[in-house]
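Just scan my protein:

——
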Amino acid sequence: MAVNDNEAQILDQWSHRLAQALQLLDLDFDRELILDLAGESARSVTHAAAPITALMVGYAAGLAAGTGSAGSKESSAAAVAQAAGVALQLCENGADGGPAGSGWADTAQ
């Protein structure tokens, strides 16, 4: 999901302020990936799926980071990309979303 220059500037400022408020000072993430993920889940499932999907992908990546499997910045980014990839695969089937038991747990180990 492409954003125009004005939106990109607003997102940069918002992301910086939010990261400071949440004390996530070294947070680095692929904004385009998250925007694409939110857009795809909104289109293929329902509009309300966008924030829920983004939250769940972030939470899954955070759990991976918390267990040590994503301890560095690069590994954390990889954990987000991996979780987002699983979510994007589920989006291919729309609201049906594929089998509940496949995906993240199988690939996160």
In short: The chain is about 65% helix and 0% strand.
